[in-house]
Amino acid sequence: MASPIPIHAQLSPRRRGPASGPRLETRFDRRLARILVYATHVFYDKGYAAASMRDLSRASGVSLSGLYYYFESKEELLYLIQKHTFTTIVDRLRRRLEEVADPVERIRLFILNHLEYFLANQKAMKVLSHEDDVLKNGFGAEIAAIKREYYQICMELLDHYKQARGLEFSSRTAVLSLFGMMNWIYTWYNPRVDADAVELAREMGDIFLRGIGAGSAKAPQKKKPATSN
Amino acid sequence: MASPIPIHAQLSPRRRGPASGPRLETRFDRRLARILVYATHVFYDKGYAAASMRDLSRASGVSLSGLYYYFESKEELLYLIQKHTFTTIVDRLRRRLEEVADPVERIRLFILNHLEYFLANQKAMKVLSHEDDVLKNGFGAEIAAIKREYYQICMELLDHYKQARGLEFSSRTAVLSLFGMMNWIYTWYNPRVDADAVELAREMGDIFLRGIGAGSAKAPQKKKPATSN
DNA sequence: CCATTGTTCGAACGTTCGTTCAAATAATAG
DNA sequence: CTATTATTTGAACGAACGTTCGAACAATGG
After folding, report:
1. Domain ranges of chain B
2. Class of the B23-71 domain?
């Protein structure tokens, strides 16, 4: 229980991760990935804290001690899930944003990308959203950094939009409201009742873009001269 | 019909709750209420599953076994917190809604009531929002019923507004988006940085009402329509 | 004073937790 | 084949968990 925080060094028998090796994806990696899928299901169902390694052992068919051949602790397990999920969604977003220039369309793309991935990987996204601040120290810092990056992208999209339209509103409240709308989905979404990602992205995009689209509200309120944010 | 749901009968030494008695608020009730406050803090910090009765014992200064004089299980503890929090917010809302008739103002009042209570009781509201589906059977059913009631009120407010303005949009998506905006707050709100409840309610009210205010957005938009304001 | 009732507590119960480890098995190379 | 490495496991560890229980303490009324 006392490590100098190299995350997961070569403490395990042999090479870990897709480093230098004969194959790009080793048997080890494939097996680990499979376990991570089961772990995602278990954490989704019971929550990280209430889920036990024995639950995962039962679900995955791997013996309790056998699991520890693939990772060093339950906490690293959560970290691996969150890291993979979050980096995937950010990478996808970056790639798709390269092909769109219009500020409005870029925001709509952000929403669409988020919801598409959210609904296609609902369990992983709940584990990411719900177990937000359970990781500590190194693990927690790394996930927090990705989160900040993702938030920053959205903030920039919004600021460009504001600038292009000469609007004034609190970007922080707007961005966080948007995240709230989108991330809350895991508490209510039912594929039998609710629309798919494209339709949902359109609806939420409408609400959000229209919501921030015009000037300040009808009633005379505080005057905010120039400084935004 | 499952069970008559007596929740917690008179299994405890003597009378429980503010039933018939010499005083309206017994010493027992006051002491229990104090423990519930500590429990709220503990659940807020560590999450329900990860928080232990020993944590609560330490925080409250009551011995581990002494706690069980006031409730029968950890689960009932969470139930008591959630029940009190939820019924209070609904009761307050009902009372305030009686004094407002205008459909728009009623929606704004709903948002304000929610945010005021949310920020004034942030820890309890996180425990309510975050530990959403951990209560089982009788306890879970009772909280779920209040939740449905609260949701229903919001839905009716929105439907009246739709009818009054002749609008068309998915009430379900709209209501759940609004809840998402509001409930997500517990993940980011910082009283040193963010505005107070009144201001926040105005901002979110603007986004939401404007967002649903115009006609349905079926037409693909390239340019912003020339609506003034 | 005693008797009664309401309240608190230390100590322990049985269970489950995350994790370890030496030994056993499967796969691979020489 | 044998030797080496990669993978899997049963059994067990100490710690922590929620909960129980009988004794002790405090308050009150006779």
Report:
1. 23-71, 73-213
2. mainly alpha
For chain B, the residue count is: 229
Q: Does A197 touch chain B (CB under 8 A)?
A: no
pLDDT digits (tens, 9 = 90+) for B189-228: 999 999 999 999 999 999 999 999 864 433 333 344 444 4
Tokens 């609190």 found at: A170
Out of A50, A134, A217, name the one closest to residue B206 (CB): A217
Query: Pseudo-torsion of CA A88, A89, A95, A98, nearest 10°?
Result: -160
CB B81 within 8 A of CB B143: no
Q: Which of residues 22-61 of A touch strand D (CB under 7 A)?
A: 26-28, 31
What distance in Å separates the CA atoms of residue B108 and residue B201, rounded to the nearest whole number?
A: 7
DSSP secondary structure letter of residue B220: P
Q: Across the A/B interface, how many CB contacts are shorter than 8 Å?
A: 114
Place of tokens 């107070």: B196
d(CA A106, CA B163): 33
In the numeric block, which tokens belong to residue A136? Answer: 């500590």
Q: Which of B203, B204, B217 is facing A206, going by the closest CB pair?
A: B217
pLDDT in tens, A125-170: 999 999 999 999 999 999 999 999 999 999 999 999 999 999 999 9
Q: Does the beta carbon of B187 lie under 8 angstroms from any beta carbon of chain A?
A: yes
In what helix (H) or strand (E) does residue B74 lie, and over which residues does it extend?
helix B74-97
B residues 64-123 lying closer than 8 A (beta carbon) to A = none
* Closest nucleotide to B64: CA versus each C1': C9
Domain A24-71 class in CATH: mainly alpha
CATH 1.10.357.10 fits A73-213, yes or no: yes
Two domains, one topology: B23-71 and B73-213? no
Q: For residues B114 and B108, what is the distance between their CA atoms, to the nearest angstrom? A: 10
- Residues B3, A225: Cα–Cα separation, whole Å: 61
Task: Flag if B206 and A221 touch (Cβ within 8 Å).
Answer: no
